[in-house]
Amino acid sequence: GQVVYSITEETERGVSVGNIAKDFGIDAATLSDRKFRVITGSSKQYFNINASTGALSVNEPIDREQLCELKSACLLNYELVLENPLELYRMEFKVLDINDNSPGFPLSEYHINVPEFLSPGARFTLPNAQDLDEGTNSVQNYTLSPDEHFHLEMQTHGDGSKYPELVLKKALDREQQATHRLVLTAEDGGDPPKSSDVPVIVTVLDTNDNAPEFEHSIYRASILENSPNGTLVVQVHATDLDEGPNGEVRYSFSNATSADLQQMFLIHPHTGEVTVNGILAVQRPLLEMLIEARDNGAFGMSSTAKLLVEITDVNNHGPEITITSLSSPIPEDAVPGTVIALLSIMDKDPGENGKVTCQIPDNLPFRLKPSLENYYRLVTSGLLDRELISGYNITITATDLGSPPITTQKTLWVQISDVNDNPPVFSADTFDVVVEENNPLGAFLYQVSASDPDFGENGRVSYVLRNSTVAGSALASLLSVSLANGSIYAKCAFDFEQLRSFYFQVEAKDNGSPALSAAITVNVYISDQNDNAPAILYPTSQNGSVAVEVVPRLADEDYLVTKVVADDEDNAQNAWLSYHLAHSSDSTLFHLAPHSGELRTTRSMRSTDFLKHKVVVVVRDHGYPPLSSTVTVGILLADTLPQALPDFDDSGEPPPLLNATNIYLIVSLACVSCIFAAFLLFLAIVRL
């Protein structure tokens, strides 16, 4: 058996539920003897059995919601066990629900975010209320507080359960009302019914439907041109009625603003402060920029304002000198007015600060001539001479008309190229050269040198001999000259006695085109060497015979016997002659004048004097080393000229007792005698 009992929850303790003895047909008196016991899986003993009567009563009130939670049927199962005999009975208690719980919402309030761009009819799920009761005691109905934008509709799940939905019946505008506070009421079907409320806060999510708006459509500012970095120009401000990122405004320069202005100025993206960012290098006094204010919405909206910045000029730019064209080097024969360089001189300042005057030093053969606007031509104003000045450092000074003025200088180096306008120049018109005769072949005589102030090939000098003849011979057969250095060499040996002097011309020629030349006259003087012995002109001898002079037999003292006449082809002291007696048969009888060559008697002649005398005269020059010649003069003492001249091979003196031949004979005889005596002595010794 099994018996099912029904009991409402929260039944008080002791309330009778039934009688197991009657319900199961058991004798109540035997319950104790049969040791009955109740077995249950519950932790609590909700029921009590009277062992005497079998009455079943409530032992502890039952809270269905606690015991069975959300189960639709709440059942408690008990088993009754009896012994002697063993019997098992099942009891099932069906706990019936009462409306003891009000509906409840899990949260104290609910938030729903609704984009403002949604159209009417949009639906939003509302939270379900929970009611631990079951059946009609559970949640049966929902209501919503009145609102012009929302109403409530009930929907049914597939299992038949209902749930509330919030329906948009009028378009939202966050800028007019950002939050809607609604009250959702859940009501059960109990009697009396119970209900519960929960606030539903509808937050209208912003849609980026408003563009930022500037306070002013045009902003005006004025700053100095030399304002440093970070100088505040102006602060712009724009507002956006949207909220969150849609209402956050970022500032920037519009793409319509030129890139150079965007580099010169910086705008803070959050504060809208426009500051100087670099050098204000502009040529116009009024700058126009467009500033854009854009929100941070998904599809950012923007608006623009115009910023006009007036730049108050300060003379902070010096003139800039640019060499557009430069011709260097320039030839020294350039005519005045020749254009050397084209200059561009600019000043970035406007107005008077940008007007420039330009000049160069007055002491230069150049001047500046204005050309096109801001251009100048540098031209020659005088003659140039590279030999005097080979180049010029031209300092160009440009000064603007600002206050204070700013000056810029630039230096040009203009080199002067050479033109062959200078012939070679010798240091003198003529040169005198002295050369000794008998010079060796190829002997160096002299070196001529000419200078040419021109440069390079124009100044390189070569030397040649001008064609001429000397003593009937071509000059080229006598001399040669080095083409490179002007050294003059002898090609033959000169003879003073044949050619004492001559002159010729050396031409110096440069290598320019056309070549220029100059000539110099070289006077050559040949100096004498003592290379000629004196020549005796008188007295002369023929065929090697002795010249004879006849002197009166009794001639007086200082009688002129003869005069020796000699000549020397050399010159100067090499030709100065002196006369000397080298030999005289009677040294007491004659003497010779050393300068005139006169041979005279030293005393009067005597009758005892030999009739023949011979003297040897030496004629010597004064060269170094000295050279000499001799002449032998025979003197015959006679009053008349004899028909035949005697032989003067001997001097007329008695022959000497011992001459060389006699000496040789005597020596030979003595040697033979000695040898013979020695031989006799040897024989005597042998015999003994």
From TrEMBL:
One of its GO terms (biological process) is homophilic cell adhesion via plasma membrane adhesion molecules. It comes from the Eukaryota. Residues 6-105, 106-214, 215-321, 322-426, 427-536, 561-648 form the Cadherin domain. Its main location: membrane. The chain crosses the membrane at residues 663-686. InterPro entries: Cadherin-like_dom (IPR002126), Cadherin-like_sf (IPR015919), Cadherin_CS (IPR020894), Cadherin_N (IPR013164), Protocadherin/Cadherin-CA (IPR050174). Pfam families: Cadherin, Cadherin_2. SUPFAM superfamilies: Cadherin-like. Potential calcium-dependent cell-adhesion protein. May be involved in the establishment and maintenance of specific neuronal connections in the brain. It is a single-pass type I membrane protein. One of its GO terms (molecular function) is calcium ion binding. Signal peptide: none annotated. Keywords: Calcium, Cell adhesion, Cell membrane, Glycoprotein, Membrane, Repeat, Signal, Transmembrane, Transmembrane helix. This is PCDC1 protein.
